[in-house]
């Protein structure tokens, strides 16, 4: 059986060093494609492109992962820039927001990870807290903390227990975007997962980094949904 093909958003680093080379490169940490593969999917990296081509690109994959990374420019949710918000990544912002819009329009299963969850919320009209103090961990250090599922949500059906998750972030979801519900929270009330409750669509965002963990339950569910999406959109055989 053909594995569902999962597109993973990437970003451009202006100086990527390997061997004798020091050049711009589109990349994503290997944990993303390794998690997709461990959960039964095939992975393809999606470098930044013309946002107008996002639907065309998503027509070639069965599911989408929007990866973690730097802060979204607050211009996208109508806020003034907090001095603690990172430098803009305009090309990446436009590309990933276009990918999310195209995935939602085409019912392509979508998992947003960390920045990807925040981008999902912003794409649907939500806002972000630009800096949270005292949430977890020291600056610049990946740490772990518990998240609690919200009963009745897709996430709770996948992970019904309180789970320790790897986390690294200083921003969080504030006002929810259109149609989204909270599906997991930290002990301090920080939103840790959001989703669209429509059972016909698989759309979920997590604030933590499952690509830094061994738990594949969320990704396995995305892969299963992507397989169904592929079957529904398979071309009709010509007799």
Quick overview of this protein structure:
The protein has 239 residues and is of the alpha/beta class. Helices cover 26% and strands 27% of the residues. The chain has one domain (5-232): 3-Layer(aba) Sandwich (Rossmann fold).
Strand content: 25-35%
Strand and helix order: EEEHEHEHEHEEHEEEEEH
For the biggest sheet, the summary is:
9 strands, mixed
CATH homology group = Class I glutamine amidotransferase (GATase) domain
The first-to-last residue Cα distance is 22 Å
Instruction: Please give the CATH architecture.
Output: 3-Layer(aba) Sandwich
Mass-distribution shape: globular
Secondary-structure class: alpha/beta
Written description of the protein model:
This protein is of the alpha/beta class and about 240 residues long. It has one domain (about 5-230): 3-Layer(aba) Sandwich (Rossmann fold). Helices cover about 25% and strands about 25% of the residues. The strands form three sheets. It has a nine-stranded mixed sheet with strand order 4-1-5-6-13-12-11-8-9, sandwiched between helices. Helix 3 crosses helix 4 (about 115-125). It is globular. It starts with a strand and ends in a 7-residue tail after the last helix. The model has no long low-confidence stretch (mean pLDDT about 95).
Sum up the structure in keywords.
single chain; 239 residues; alpha/beta; Rossmann fold; nine-stranded mixed sheet; two-stranded antiparallel sheet
Layout: helices, strands, pairs:
Blueprint: E1 5-9, E2 11-18, E3 21-27, H1 30-38, E4 42-46, H2 54-58, E5 63-66, H3 90-106, E6 110-113, H4 115-123, E7 128-129, E8 143-149, H5 154-158, E9 163-167, E10 172-173, E11 181-186, E12 191-195, E13 203-206, H6 217-232
Parallel strand pairs: 1-4, 1-5, 5-6, 6-13
Antiparallel strand pairs: 2-3, 7-10, 8-9, 8-11, 11-12, 12-13
């Amino acid at each position: 059986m053909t594995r569902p093909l999962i597109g993973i958003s990437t970003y451009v680093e202006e100086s990527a060093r390997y061997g004798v080379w020091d050049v711009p490169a589109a990349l994503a940490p290997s944990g993303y494609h390794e998690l997709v593969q461990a959960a039964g999917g095939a992975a393809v990296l999606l470098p930044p492109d013309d946002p107008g081509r996002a639907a065309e690109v998503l027509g070639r994959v069965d599911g989408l992962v929007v990866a973690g990374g730097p802060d979204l420019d607050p211009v996208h949710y109508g806020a003034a820039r907090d001095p603690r918000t990172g430098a803009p990544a305009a090309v990446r912002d436009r590309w990933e927001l276009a990918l999310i819009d195209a995935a939602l329009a085409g019912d392509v299963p979508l998992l947003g990870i960390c920045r990807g969850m925040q981008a999902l919320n912003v794409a649907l009209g939500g806002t972000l807290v630009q800096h949270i103090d005292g949430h977890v961990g020291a600056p610049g250090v990946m740490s772990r903390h518990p998240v609690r599922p919200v009963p009745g949500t897709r996430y709770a059906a996948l992970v019904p227990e309180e789970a320790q998750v790897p986390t690294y972030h200083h921003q969080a979801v504030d006002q929810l975007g259109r149609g989204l519900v909270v599906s997991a929270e930290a002990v301090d009330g920080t939103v840790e997962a959001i989703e669209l409750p429509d059972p016909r669509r698989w759309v979920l965002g997590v604030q933590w980094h499952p690509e830094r963990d061994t738990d594949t339950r969320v990704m396995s569910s995305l892969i299963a949904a992507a397989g169904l999406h592929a079957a529904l959109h398979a071309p009709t055989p010509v007799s």
